[in-house]
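Batch manifest, entry 17 of 40.
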Amino acid sequence: MLKTICYISDSCQEESLHALKNLYSKAKKNNSKHNITGVLIYYNKNFLQVLEGDKISVDATFKRISLDTRHRNVFKVININIPQRIFEDYNFGFTIVNNSKELNELYEYLEWLRKADNTLANKVVNMVENFIAQKKESV
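Output type: structure tokens
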């Protein structure tokens, strides 16, 4: 059975580009090993991540993340079984939103997802858009 968890969290520190790239490399390697797909977004000292895969792997990965001292205020937004993967073709992507060009690229991907006309995909798209909008307002 496939499952997805989407969470948001605060970073305990301002992450450097180098630290974020290392974090992403480790996450991608671990997630590939456990056949987890999804996306990781970092914006303004906050993370939003979507994990997809078999229930045991997704739950174990989320548990490790929630115990990671680099995160605080980990909040699970979506925790449901799914009939198919949304991010299967995205191969666990990573986005650092630093400027309007990167934000536009993310929106292009989200728009592609929205056109898939998948209810869960649309929920994730709306959540990512709200996440970014809220972070913009707090800057």
